[in-house]
Each structure stands twice: as C-alpha cells, then as structure tokens.
Amino acid sequence: MIRSSLQRFAQSFIGGICNMSRELSAEFIGTFTLVTAVCGAALFSAPSAGLIAVAFAVGLSVVAMAYAVGSISGGHFNPAVTCGLVAAGRFEAGKAIPYIIAQVIGGLAAAAIFYVILQGAPAAGKWNTFFAVSNTYGGSGFTMLSAGLIEVVITALFVLVIVSVTSPRAPAGFAPLAIGLALVLFHLVAIPVSNASLNPARSTATAVFGGAAALGSLWLFWVAPIVGGIIGGVIGKWLHAEYVSGPVNP
User: Fold this and answer.
1) Contact 156/228 with Cβ under 8 angstroms?
2) Treating both helix axes as pointing N-terminal to C-terminal, what angle do 220-239 and 144-165 enclose, rounded to 10 degrees?
3) CA distance 54 to 37
4) Which structural domains are found in the chain, ordered by start?
5) Cα→Cα distances 66→86, 179, 202, Å
6) Cβ-based neighbours of 158, under 8 Å, separated by 6 or more
7) Contact at 8 Å (CB) between 194 and 150?
8) pLDDT, tens only, 47-89
9) What single-letter DSSP state applies at residue 205?
C-alpha cells in the first residue's frame, strides 16, 4: 500500500513537472541570470567598484528577467519569494517545490560557470573568492543573530513590496522596476552584515563553491529568508485584503 502510494505520488509529481516545463524553464533562466549578476559583480567588480556594483547588478538582473519571463512564471527567481507568495494566497502551494528546485538548479549552473571563469583569472588581478561572496556569519563577521535578523527583516519587506506592486490596485507595468529597485536598496543595507542573501537559491549557489565554512552557514540563509518571506506575504495579504475567496473589506 505504501509502495503504491509512493508510486502514485511520483507519477503525479513528474507529470506536474512536465506540464510546468515552460514555467520551470523561466524560473531556471531568471535565477541563472540573477546569480550571474551576483557572481560577476561580487567576484570581479566589487574589489574595485564596491558593494554598489553588486547591489545594482542584482537589482537590474531582476528587472530585466521580470520583464523578459515574468509573464511565463510570475518571475519569482527565489524560494523565499515563492513561499511568501504561497502565504499571500498568490501562488499554488503544489507548485512551490518544483519552482524551488528549478531556482536552485539555475543558481548552481550560473555559479559553476563563474567558478570555471575564476580559475582563469590573472594571478595579479584583484578578485574575490567564492567564500568572500557567500553568505556567512560568525568568525570575524556579524553574529548569527545579527545576520539572521537582517535577513528576516529585509526579505519580509521585499516580499511585501512584491505583493503590493503586483496588486490589482497598483499602477500597471511598473512592478519589475519597483521590485528591482527594492532589491538594490536591501542589498545596500545588508551586504555589510550578511552579504545580502534574501534568496536561498543564491546562497546555495555560492556556498557550494565557497568551502566548508560557507556550507556550514547555509542553513541560516534558507531559514531566515523563508521565514521573512512568509511574514511579508502574510502582511501583504492582510494589507491588501486578499484571500483565496477573493478580495474583502478588512
């Protein structure tokens, strides 16, 4: 009985993924582009241009991909956003796991390419390492509490922005700009503290190539952004009075 139930679940899960191929491809491409921005700017531009380069690269990548493929998948590119939109009643819970898998694979693919590129960097150049661009806590950096708290807060605010600017009452056509600029803002705030995750897929991508210390910190950058995303989704749902049964007056 258990075996047949597992088989039915597997068939249903695989069938669902096949039916979502365009959406999952869009999430893969969008997250790939986002992590490309993180790795390219943080590894090669940040040592000379500073954190502003990273913040704007990430924000602009989300603006571009939200306009490019957002109409296909909704433009999440981030497990915390997916979970937050589920909490806000904006996204089907049954689609969340395939979306998150596609996002993580997209991020890992981008980081792998930049890992290869970094191996060919001139020895005399000024470049960051994958550990330096990973999300970590402790050691010579901020404590676990500080890093976790800022990630919860900024991710909650980020998801609140997403829920708000995609509301039917928001001005049409401007959501990607608002979301991208919010991401720039939150990166400027959080890079000095936690290297600004807001995104477990981004954190996973750099941690895999950042060594044992980065992998040891990774759990926090799954838990804190997802908790923050859910908080932001719940607040956004309440603010905009949106429920599964439709809009109601608070």
Assistant:
1) yes
2) 40
3) 7
4) 2-239 (1.20.1080.10)
5) 18, 9, 17
6) 81, 179, 182, 183, 186, 198, 228, 229, 232
7) yes
8) 999 999 999 999 999 999 999 999 999 999 999 999 999 999 9
9) H
Rg of the Cα atoms in the chain = 18
CA distance 107 to 210: 14
Q: DSSP H helical segments within the chain, as ranges?
A: 2-19, 21-40, 46-49, 51-73, 79-87, 96-119, 144-165, 175-194, 200-208, 212-217, 220-239
Q: Which residues contact 164 (CB under 8 A, 6 or more apart)?
A: 170, 236, 239, 240
Tokens 């590129």 appear where? 117
Kindly state the tokens that stand for 129: 């390492």
Segment 161-199, tens digit of pLDDT: 999 999 988 888 999 999 999 999 999 999 999 999 999
Q: Name which of 167, 169, 173, 161 is nearest 80 in CA terms.
A: 161
Tokens of 205: 């991508």
CB-based contact 7:35 (threshold 8 Å)? no
Reading the block at residue 109, the tokens are 């693919």
8 A C-beta contact, residue 151 and residue 220: yes
Give the C-alpha separation, 2 to 34, whole Å.
40
Rounded to the nearest 5°, which phi and psi values hold at 53?
-60, -45
